Queue: 4 jobs
Job 1
Amino acid sequence: MRTLPATNIELAAWLRLSLAPGLKPAALRLLLSAFGLPEAIFDQSPEALASIAGEAAARAVLTPASPDFEAQLAAVVAWREQPGNQLVTLDDPAYPPALLTMPDPPPLLYIKGQLDLLHTRAIAVVGSRSATPQGVEDAERFARELSVAGVTVVSGLALGIDGAAHRGGLEGPGGTVAVIGTGADLVYPSAHHALARQIAVRGAIVSEWPLGTPARAANFPQRNRLIAGLVSGVLIVEAAMRSGSLITARLANEMGRDIFALPGSVHAPLSRGCHRMIKQGAKLIETPDEVLEELGFARAAKTAPVGAPPMQRDDRIQEDAAQAAASAVVRSAITAEGERLLAALGHAPTTLEILATRTEMEGAVLQNTLLQLELAGQLTVLPGGRFMRASHG
């Protein structure tokens, strides 16, 4: 799909409206409905604008452009001319149709990559930044199988579950879309520069924020509303009780999207948000096929075998094990190997083979470390040769 390039005059009007301080997307949509193109809005009187969208919106529209507006416009024009970069305005036929069902679609979208992916059937896969190794594996497997079925996987490019969802989405024809909370010319977190480059080539990166906008906490709930708006359903893999993923789920529910949650151990802190959503009406999901069936999405291709090795598994296991270790329960008198193993263990029963893959420990070192954790009361040995993190209330 190719976007017709707007003239610089048209782009300047759209950019001014998108930058107008205090002008909310819902108010802008009212003004566009009443007066047509952005240029016409600037020709209206304060009274005419206020009668349609209120006095605050009228003041925002009529506020003079900032002194550096011309430089901003030049930067946007230069960015748009770079290969793979596109700007889509609210009146553009290429604007994502799912976002038009929102009450407040952004007036201007900055897109890097495959614009067609914003017009496909899509599911969001979201969750904790401090994901467990099991959560990362689940997110990647679900995303991979959804993508193999021809469904686009949407997430927010954060650490943990989001990153795993994007990596899984890249492994199938459905692809992946990253909705970010910074300008489209920035990558946050910096650890995801390589992943963002892959998505820009084989998926799409979307932002409503002006170029150069840094990561700010206030931006991410607004980013979450775009994730919710682009999809038919939201799958939460892991989430604490206070989690941005739950904000995404709430916003999606308000838009009439379906909410799915993956259950976990009652002892796992990152399962509590999922369990809370299930109590509130989210659908409990155990397999990717259940998500596809609930949304009426037929598989477009044969599913990749469960347990097929994801790309770059070793690097990701080390990164996510380190994140899990940072948020794990207090451990005393445990060696560095014990810390590493406990981080890799997660909160679900796990076999010796899986632990060996996750930690890359030698057999003797792994066995000794398991014994150390068992004696320290941090690990429980289950029937069938499985291991599980011990509960501490």
Job 2
Amino acid sequence: MARREPSLFIRLFALISLVLVFGAAVLMTAAWYSARGAADEAYDRLLLGAAYQIADAIRVQDGEPEIELPVSAFELLALSDRDRIFYRVLDPAGRTMTGYENLADPAGKAGTPEKAQVENATFDGEIVRVARVTRRFDDAQMRGDAVVIVAQTVEARRALARELTFRSFILVGVMGAIAIGGTIFALRHALAPISRLERAIRQRDPLDLTLVSVPTPRELAPFVAEINRFIERLRGRVELMQQFIADAAHQLRTPLTALEGQVDLLTNDEVTPEGRKHLDRIRARTGQLARLANQLLSHAMVAHRERAVAGAPVDLAALTRRALDEAIPDTLERDILVTLHTPPDPLIVRGDPVNLAEAIKNIVDNAVRHGAPTKITVRLSKRQALAVIEVEDDGPGIAREQWARVVQRFGAPSSEGKGSGLGLSIAAEVASAHGGALSFMEKGSFGFVVAMSLSLQKEDVV
């Protein structure tokens, strides 16, 4: 048993989902770094602004630097109530004018850069962001650079980074959901031709060996071409088999007819009772073999015409009369009364008259050989969109448990050697090909009905 592979839709969806998940992970990582950069940039500007305001507040009085810390500088930093602020102001001589003595100068041993700088550092056991700006004094009273160092903890900027990242996550999530929905829609639409091809093949009749003609995209064309090549090979094999059956049955008919004639001649000669008994058995078996050959030929013809002959309007009453005329010579041997009841309005079906006549003859022949002692009644009626042909005999009929088997080829041959097992199966196949079915009905202890329903021509359906 072949291992069951996952569907193409699931495989494509899984692969595309993996790509989308990977892309979302990359976007979220980029969003996190971008959010951190944006938060640092925003708070660094506040930090530098506060440092510049403090530097502008430095004054020279009698040759000594003085400072009065501006309240506005700390108000800017106080906008973030989660963080602590540290500062230190150094005069040109490197002495601390105010602030925290242990707040290190980020310039360190690298000198005293004139450009403002902001960097990460650690102060009092906490991670801080440190801004350093300088102010140059170049007059007679004081020369050199005053340094302002302002540090702030990073809780607020981290909170801002998380908020920006979360918003990006919501946006990526919404876009991801839209992408997943779009992927499902696109895959369903793209794979629709495969589903159409699958339905077209699954809904075909098992006996339909015509080529598949379903519009498909270019990628499926080789697949459809291979299916059609397989169908052509299969059709060739079936036709060869049907031709062999027809040829074999045809070739058997001539010697069997001659054999029946020879047996009939022997019956006129004087034969011992024991010989007469054996001769009757030979005659019965010869007749059975002849009927089998005829019905094999009939079956091959029905199967061929079912595919090769286009349907045409058929008057069912006239067709039934002709079929009964061909069956009546068989009934006369046993003095069976055959009656036909037809409705006043014609029953028109669309189909193959040869196959329909063959089906009716097989039903009547089955009633003659296996059922009716004295009488056969054929009724034609209309039931909604169906025309129904009922063949009723006054015999015991077929046991209910055999109904399903007798419509199969060689499903229930007669134990007495009177049947071939093909008659009713041919009728069932013809009924099915004409949109109907073969059914059975008991009528008391003696009386049995075989009913064949056929689809009426559309204009005759009321």
Job 3
Amino acid sequence: MASSSPIPALKVLNQTSISPPVGTIPETTIPLSFSDLMWLYMGAVERLFFYSIPSITTTHFMEHLLPSLKSSLSLTLPHFFPLAGYIIYSPTPTPNFHYHFSTTNSIPFTVAESDDDFKHLTGDDARSVLRLRPLVPPLPPPSGDETTPLMAVQVTVFPNHGVSIGLTINHGACDGTSTANFMKSWADTCKSGSAASFITPLFDRSLFIYPKEFDSIYLNLAMKFRELISNSSIANSSNKSTNNEAKQDDLVIGSFWLSKDEIEKLKQWVSEEKEAVHCSTFVVACAYVWTCQVRARGWETNRIAWFGFPVNLRGRLRPPVPEEYFGNCLGICVTSAEVGELVKEDGVSVAAEFIRRAIDELRDDALRYVSTWPEIGRTVGDKQPLSVAGSPGFRVYDRDFGWGRPVKVEVVSIGRNGAMSISEGRDGEGIGIGLAASKQEMDKFRLEFAKGLQVLENFS
């Protein structure tokens, strides 16, 4: 159960900004693709990396660890310079949005100290979203003015316990693949003490080939959001989530783990129920969480349950887009099933089959549903779908800044919409799941999750 104690105050020690070294990057403008526009107003991604450093003091961190953290970020930014820039709306000659970097741009960088319970925050039990959110830096939402900042960083010291690095990135800036490349580069540079050799991002928009009518579809959508925000009170808020603070008070994030052995048993279970069907680790893990959630919610059996997740298009397009491509190169995969099918004894197999089919439909034409994604979003949005953030392929637990591997990585932004996050396990194997839900639903979900694992123990 989440802690009911008051939220400990956060002491801000220092607020500054980090820029690329002077003269390394000229003023640059890069157009947004339809995929960038699609995510521009969908909210920022907030991710927390926790590191255990039991003997750490604030003074030692400020004097010995912080300088290399800042300098390595500065050395990394020339390779990922859009993150230090803005997204600019240009009304003429035709309305459009662009990344824009000027030599005066920088990233907000906050250093704070917290006396909150480090063990609780990095545990698996339900933790209040309101306890985790102060550890990620605020980033103004896209507004109706000329510029939109893209990234902010906050480092928080927990004396005698550890450190957290909070990262907030406007989703319009880039997708999880690009963010993972950035974090790997920053961590490797910090650990090595010099500019590390890493995959150099590619910004050439001609590498991402798609029908150009998609640009007009998502430009119109972005313009509608821009107009809405310009004419609403949201434009005057520094954080969208504060408008729903009463609702947020009941939201918690819980952590769940599927070992390598449990994943293999899930795959065997699915393949026996659905002959000749091979499912990936991602598919069976998501199928298991989806069915556990539906059971926990106790919905009527004739209700339709929805599940959706972003898909990396880089390797699915012809010609393929290089993995080094920086920005958003994502599709959306959505599927649904009757609750009655998902809560049956073979519900995991049913769920896996629906998810696998949705992915398979993208093999022949990964962009086949692009023009209908806005309508799908409007249709599904109010039906409490389970959506996914992250990927085991991002290898978030490999991010070592010289202090060892993180003991916990959380995607705090799933607390906005009751989503799930997925990553590799803490030891690099298996799967880690983060789930956001109400306190009552989380308790029920934990029971369903545990019951399912008991069934797996008897499976061979």
Job 4
Amino acid sequence: MNSITESASVLETSPDSSWRRSDTMWMLGLYGTAIGAGVLFLPINAGIGGLVPLIIMAIIAFPMTFFAHRGLCRFVLSGKKGGGDITEVVEEHFGVGAGKLITLLYFFAIYPICLVYGVAITNTVNSFIIHQLHLPTPPRAILALILILGLMTIVRFGKEMIVKAMSILVFPFVAALMLLAVYLIPHWSSAIFDSASAAGSMTGHSLMVTLWLAIPVMVFSFNHSPIISSFAVAKRQEYGDGAEKKCSRILACSHVMMVLTVMFFVFSCALSLSTADLAQAKAQNITILSYLANHFNNPLIEWVAPIIATVAISKSFLGHYLGAREGFNGMMIKSLRSRGKSASEETLNRITGIFMLLTTWLVATMNPSILGMIETLGGPVIAMLLFLMPMYAMHKVPAMKKYSGTIINVFSNVFVALVGLVAMSAIVYSLLG
């Protein structure tokens, strides 16, 4: 929290220290990208190990997310070109070859998540039509096309409209999560405390393994790296040299909001269920909302759950689409440049939009199980790009060295690097296990 106070005190003396409406929109946009479908699985993974791992995860949630995303934001801002996104900055700092590789990895860290959200929103709306509205099952291809076209229509209005849509959608989503968390308070029990006392004999080894395997889920649930590049570029155009301090302040506010609301929801769900219930939910491979609806047999939750899930998936798709488009455009730019050609941004966006529409629709229609692909492919790449690459750049890139001098920066950089290594190794462990 010292870093937040430090940033705030510096900003007070800055000519651009006033908080603008655009800052609020971006704060909510960052929150909206991170807090999506992944949060609906987080209570299961976070609470399944009992109370002690849950408390430790609550403590590390803010520094883990804030320091990592601030590092990536600083990396994007370190480029010499004012409008250069992450793909351009990577090429500037690490060369053309590394630029192509990182751009490819950046795209494949985000693109599969967009495909998952295409499948998820189709399944959620389809289930709602069948079980709540009691209507016949619509043709899956048509339903998927309508839903994805709806999301792509928002995309066509541009980056500002995407951020505005996410900032609007975030209000009903947060309200619904908080109301559900409050609704569950009368159902709180001592079950998780009983499991904690039973696990009081939990060895240090088993506690560390539980935390080790939970960190990748936290990385995925709080991740909003796809929108960080667009955020940094927009703020650099707005604030110029003062962009880094303003970005840090916006990120801090967004992450405080993120951690408080999500961890309250996680604790409320975990206190309402036993670790055995959470293990059963994990085995059934369903969201915590679906399990709560079945567990308490409550018609209100049965109606609210799919609405919350649809809003969560929609805004997460929009935020991740910005990153996927940036990566795909970057690959096309580098391919064209190697052949001495170029294309306008509007043309690139149109090609990317057609590609994303067709592939997302095709995958949503086929309805494959690709969550495992995200955990085994997307997770390590996200950890590498979000946690490790900016930390590496701080030691290799002259423009980044100023962020590695103070004790606070050294601590935060080492912490972020360790979390990134743990996230990558935990996924390898789960694959081998």
